[in-house]
Design a protein that fits this description.
The complex is a heterodimer of chains A (109) and B (115). By secondary structure, chain A is mainly β. Chain A has no helices and eleven strands. The relative contact order of chain A is 0.35. Chain B is mainly beta. In chain B, strands 2, 4, 5, 6, 9, 10 and 11 form a seven-stranded mixed sheet that branches. In chain B, strands 1-3-8-7 form a four-stranded antiparallel sheet, with no helix packed on it. The radius of gyration of chain B is 13 Å and the shape is globular. In chain B, a hairpin with a 3-residue loop joins β4 and β5. At the A-B interface, β5, β9 and β10 of A face β4, β5 and β10 of B.
């Protein structure tokens, strides 16, 4: 079967750096995406990695190691508005997507 | 404004009463998909469509039907809803990218309660 594992909850203080890990086991792999979802809201796309290495987009970076079936999302200079749930998602087939169960990030002042 | 619109946003209904959740996008996207979100389980793909009249099953299709008669619309149909289909449902759309980044745009969600 398909599985994506990520921590259920992470807490950090404003201004800090936090890393959210994702390990996956899927039949087929095209790339790893990250989505943010605020309470009661729609998921919004953050980043995508198809190849090994680090992708940076402003305060957010995402890393992938295909050989380890592992990736992470790095959030720097945390702000209160970053409090949300973060989902990793694998594009496992041409049109199939599998999401992790989500990591709830609590940012404290 | 580019958007994915779902209706209704909230619905409480009873077992066995057929219902349809509509989804419409104005971005001319080929790809559309339905997900359900349950606590602790993340988003699970129900059905997807690559274009008009092309649909296929996702991970959890049982109890659901879809249709894609027009590019912009992708309704989700529950012919005989049951309580285990109580969930938060999201419709998403994207351009169809064969193997690369295919960021999905999500609607605001439909919260269904089936009693």
């Amino acid at each position: 079967g398909q599985s994506l594992e990520q921590p259920s909850e992470v807490t950090a203080v404003e201004g800090a750096i936090v890393q959210i890990n994702c390990t996956y086991q899927t039949s087929g792999f095209y790339g790893l995406s990250w989505y943010q979802q605020h309470d009661g809201g729609a998921p919004t796309f953050l980043s995508y990695n198809a190849l090994d290495g680090l992708e940076e987009t402003g305060r957010f970076s995402s890393f992938l190691s295909r050989s380890d079936s592992y990736g992470y999302l790095l959030l720097q200079e945390l702000q209160m508005k970053d409090s949300a749930s973060y989902f990793c998602a694998v594009r496992a087939g041409f049109n199939k997507f599998y999401f992790g169960s989500g990591t709830k990030l609590n940012v404290k002042p | 404004e580019a958007q994915v619109t779902q209706n209704p946003r909230y619905l409480i209904t009873v077992t066995g009463k057929k219902l349809t959740v509509t989804c419409s996008q104005n971005m001319n996207h080929e790809y559309m998909s339905w997900y359900r979100q349950d606590p602790g389980l993340g988003l699970r793909q129900i059905y997807y469509s690559m274009n008009v009249e092309v649909t296929d099953k996702g991970d959890v299709p049982e109890g659901y039907k879809v249709s894609r008669k027009e590019k912009r619309n992708f309704p989700l149909i529950l012919e005989s809803p049951s309580p285990n289909q109580t969930s938060l449902y999201f419709c998403a759309s994207s351009l169809l990218v064969p193997t690369g980044n295919q960021p999905q745009h999500f609607g605001d969600g439909t919260r269904l309660s089936i009693l």
